[in-house]
Amino acid sequence: MTLLETALLHLQAAWDSHPYLLLSIPLVLYLLVSNVKSYFKLRHFNGPLWAHFTYYWFVSKVFRARMLNTLQELSDKYGPICRVGPNDLLVGDFDEVVRINGVRSPYVKSDWYTTIRFDVDGGDSVVSLMDTAEHDVRKAKLIKGYEGRGRGQDKGWMDKVVDKQLVELVRLLREKYVKQGRRINWTDVVRYFSVDVTMEALMGEAWGDLQTDSDIHKFFEMSDYSVPFMHTVGSWGSLRWLTSSWWFIRKAGPRVTDDHGLGKFIGIVKKEVAKRFSDPEAKKGDMLYDWVSQGLTPRECELDLVLGVIASADTVAVPMRTIFLYLITSPLVYAKLKAEITAAIKAGTISEPITNQEALKLPYMQAVIHEGLRMMPISAFGFPKRVPSKGDMMCGQHVPGGTDIFPNNLAIQRSKKVFGDDADVFQPERWLIENTRGAEHRSLMVRHIEVIFGHGRWQCPGRMLAWVELNKIFVELLRNFDFQVANPRDPWKLSVYSSVCVHEFWVNATEAKQQW
């Protein structure tokens, strides 16, 4: 018997007794070879040991919502660039992040973006659209409506959209909570405000969450359990291909026949888009009206309307919660901001509600907003871009092509070089021009804050509406009420995946004593 015949007999015996074990051998060899290959690709970058071989380390941190402390620890230990996965680097250098996201940058979207797909019929929103040229064309058609420069949108359009819901917010707080001495769940109230502003801007009519003080379509209920899943899967490079595949989305994605959540909302959007295209002049002045005039197709309108709510509704509510907590737990800051608002009311320099332009002239309020955004960025780490095939130099080191780069937003906002040795402390005074190193330095600080909303080609189109909401809401709240944290020992439940999630944030409110 030859050596080959002997080997074949042994293989046949192994197959007869342990077929599954035999089948696992190629898989084990594949994983071994791929892990070794991945390790050597980025071996010159420091990072946690297991991050060199497997996604498990990064995914476990995201899944357990521990990214706030993790990002700070990584920055302190490894510097501006470190390895967090077999093909992933985390970069906390402001200049590099700006360059990567520049309008003419050769970097493209990582396939992380495909995890934001939600359409069972196989369509892409402007965010999940992977082709850069197609993305640029679509975004160019969307941007005027988002910035209030579209057809039917006058100069004060954003103020009017936000004011309508501000009046409703003050009414709700006063009638349901303050007069009845009830605690306020700030987590829910501001998300209802935010989604109603978003819907008013997108489709000309609020959902009514704020008016009813309820999650009418159970949209946020859906969001609360889907966000951890989305961010966890997005961090697991080898699983993205499955959960973002059209097969998986068709099996597990939202459907218009659903009686709640995203599926129900998609059904609402489809009906409204069909009405607009049958009679384009029926309703004017919202974003959808402008998008139709810009030549977007019905499918494109549907996909980007749904995206607009997913991307904006709870996202803008995050800084409304985090800034508010820092504000009402900092007595000196709170008193100083109240004094600035009171002085402006006495002088007659602000309207009721305050306009965005008037708000920009309140220096201390601007300082509070900027500092709050810095302390708790909306997204702790940003969406990854992929290094061009020829590779690139970053932070003085060569990065091979195909590597995914995650911006470390938290590290950028806690830069001691830019914000001083007390960068970890909530200190709005650092933003006052007399406390900076001059106008140029303050401009650099502002540019650091702006990257929270993305930069260049990938900048969030809804950032201007978000700023208007932030500029107006705190003035109207403190003009009408005084607030305290209901539970100082445990003010909220904080979870940080990539995005920041806040729950159980309870506050007490009383009528403000008018001093004007």
Automatic annotation (TrEMBL):
What are the record keywords, sorted? Answer: Heme, Iron, Metal-binding, Monooxygenase, Oxidoreductase
Binding of heme occurs at C460
Q: Name one Pfam family in it.
A: p450
Q: Does the keyword Iron apply?
A: yes
Q: Molecular function (GO) terms listed?
A: heme binding; iron ion binding; monooxygenase activity; oxidoreductase activity, acting on paired donors, with incorporation or reduction of molecular oxygen
Protein family according to the UniProt entry? Belongs to the cytochrome P450 family.
Q: What is this protein called?
A: Cytochrome P450 E-class, group I
